[in-house]
Structure formats: C-alpha cells, structure tokens
Amino acid sequence: MSIHLIDCTLRDGGNLNNWNFSDQAIQKIIEGLDGCRADYIEVGYVGGSSSNKSSFQGKTSDCTINFLKQLPKTIHSKIAVMVVPSVCQLDQLMDLGTGTVSMIRLASYPHNAEDVYPYIASLKNRGFQVSMNLMAASYVDSQEAAKIAQKATLCGADVFYLADSFGSMTPTCIDEYITVIKNSSHCAVGFHGHNNLGLAFANALQAIRSGATYIDTSFCGMARGAGNLPTEQFVSALSHWGHFGTNYVVQPAIETADYVLNHVLDQPMKISTPEIICGISNIHYYFYDKIIQSVQEIPSVHPLEISRELGKLRPPKVDVSYINKAIEHIGGIWNENENTERTS
Questions:
Q1: Are residues 296 and 149 in the same domain?
Q2: Domain Pyruvate carboxyltransferase spans what residues (predicted)?
Q3: pTM over 0.85
Q4: Which residue from 60, 169, 222, 277 could staple onto 13, CB 3.0 to 4.6 Å apart?
C-alpha cells in the first residue's frame, strides 16, 4: 500500500496568518517539501477560502495563474490547490491547466455536497486528478459519508477525503468510516485530522491501517485551533518506523519545520481549553469566543455545557443563533448579538 502525503501548510496554515506568507517562506516551504519527497504540496485556494473575509489576505488565499506559474519548480512533489464551490464558480477555473496544477481538491460540507459533483466531472474531463474533501465529516454517520463518496466516485473523483474538522473523531470512529467507505466505493480514501484532542497522529495511523492512502499534514501543525498533524512528525516517525515502506527524507522536513517555527509562526501551536472543549463537543473552533461572550451573561453555566449542547445541533455555519438555541435547550437566556461568521 502506497501512502501519499499532502502538505497543506500554505493553504490550511493560512488560517493563522491570513495567508500572508512571504515570498521567502513560500519558496522555503515548497523546496523543503520537495526535498523531503512529499507527494503533493497544496499551495492555497483558487477562488477564495469562504472562511475569512479580511482585506489583508495573502497570495495563497486565492492563487492566481501568475502566482502558480512562478512557484519554485519541484522534482518529487506535485502541486495541488483547493477549491470551495460555494465561493468559486466553475468558470473561474478555466485558466487552470494540468501543466501548472496536478490535483484539485474540492471542499464541501455534508449539507452542500451536491454542489461539488458537477465540478468533479468537469475537472476530471480536463485531465486533473480530483479529490472531494468532506469537511465536518463527523456531522454525518459512516453510511451517509459512504453515500457521498459513492456519488463522488461516479462523477470521477480519484480520492475521497474525510476531514475531521473539529478534531472530535477517534481511531474507532475512523476505522468505521473508512471501512464502510472502502466497502462501498473503489475511490481512494484520504484523511485530514485536526489535533484538538491530541489524536491527529493516532487517527492518521488508524486511517492508514483501515485502507486510507492519502494523509494531510502541515509544518508544525500550522492551522486554526489546535492545528493539523505536523509534517515533520509524520515524515520522521514513518521513516524511523519503517513499517509502511515510505521513502521520505527526514532532514529537509525538520529543517523546514524549524524555519516555519521561527520565521512564520508567532507562537507554537497549542492544545488548551478552547481546543479541547471544541473537540469534545464536536463544534467548530470559531464558536469558542462567541460562547465565552454568551457565558458572561450566564455565569452559572460552564462553556463546556453550552458547547456540548451546541454540538448536538450540528450547526452548518458559525452563527450566534445556534448558540442561542443551545442556551435555550439548557434553560439559559438568549444572547442578542446576532453577528455571524462562516466556517472554514
């Protein structure tokens, strides 16, 4: 079984710095990944991320053709981009060519998965390798995830990704989902794990044992909240273990991670109360600050109590109205602040 490593530092890591990677950082990250023989480098979004409306976003938040053509040339690694159909029209991708980008990853939530299927068929016909990334996979059961994977495969998807967006899934859960998907579809399976409960690595290993052949990582775990599985750990551990037959090169991975830690990140990734509570509760990390604001009005209620109730609602986006419903369910009061924010 061949494992394919997709590093998404420049894409998912941009949630921490509004995708403001310097030209030097972009070059060093790409050269380091090529040196360690990562299979794919996901360099950013095309068409926007849907999650961050800041006017100070960097180049990798919406990769232009000129940007993609000027990237450092790679020997071992292929270039991937992510597209979110809810914010990027299919005709916006017409200038993309397979000579510039090898893989296009199409991201959706379970509630809008139908939007992705026409993109899969169109991009596959144009010669791209296509992946469907199911974000918030924990919001549907394994059977529903398998149905989505089946439809994606019929449209031509090469890979179907489970994204543990809230870091709430466990190895037992991962095994169930991937086993059901593999039994009902011939599509390759990938796994993207967040680290809220410190399970990103354990979940990735279980995913591989259960039949997944694509794994997402990022240097230093760089991503929102508790972050992702660190590239340097995955490369080093699998090389040291020697169990999966990988041919990664460790030194470029750890040297590039050191660069990211000291020159890109403001501080190391951490797992603290907000990340843990969101993981336990199966909710988006961006909810936490809004929950804290609500708790100030209800001092007798712990954030964990609201978060757990909120998780039961499976909110499709980060919106205070869902917090209000959760508070109402536990006998609290309503928060009048109705500001909303999209999930990523």
A1: no
A2: 3-254
A3: yes
A4: 222
User: 199-214 as b/e, with b when 16 or more CB fall inside 10 Å?
Assistant: bbbebbbbbbebebeb
Identify the sign of the CA torsion 129, 130, 136, 142.
negative
Q: Look at residues 229, 263, 297 and tell me which one is the last residue of a structural domain.
A: 263
Task: Report the chain's terminal Cα–Cα distance, integer Å.
Answer: 31
The DSSP element (H or E) to which 142 belongs, if any, is helix 142-154
One digit per residue, the tens of pLDDT, for the chain of length 344 reads 699 999 999 999 999 999 999 999 999 999 999 999 999 999 999 999 876 666 689 999 999 999 999 999 999 999 999 999 999 999 999 999 999 999 999 999 999 999 999 999 999 999 999 999 999 999 999 999 999 999 999 999 999 999 999 999 999 999 999 999 999 999 999 999 999 999 999 999 999 999 999 999 999 999 999 999 999 999 999 999 988 889 999 999 999 999 999 999 999 999 999 999 999 999 999 999 999 988 887 777 889 999 999 999 999 999 999 999 998 888 764 444 444 443 43
- Give dist(CA 317, CA 212) in Å, integer: 28
CA dihedral sign of residues 46, 79, 216, 181? positive
Burial of 271 (0-12, 13-18, 19+ CB in 10 A): middle
Q: Which of 225, 245, 263 marks a domain boundary?
A: 263
Number of domains in the chain: 2
Per-residue DSSP letters for 285-340?
Answer: GGGHHHHHHHHTT-TTS-HHHHHHHHHHT--SSEEHHHHHHHHHHTT--------E
User: 3-class SS at 141?
Assistant: coil
d(CA 331, CA 45): 42
- Token pair for residue 39? 């299979």
Question: Does residue 239 contact residue 201 with C-beta atoms inside 8 Å?
Answer: no
Here the CATH number for the domain that contains residue 180 is 3.20.20.70
**For helices 288-295 and 273-281, angle between their N-to-C axes, nearest 10 degrees:** 100
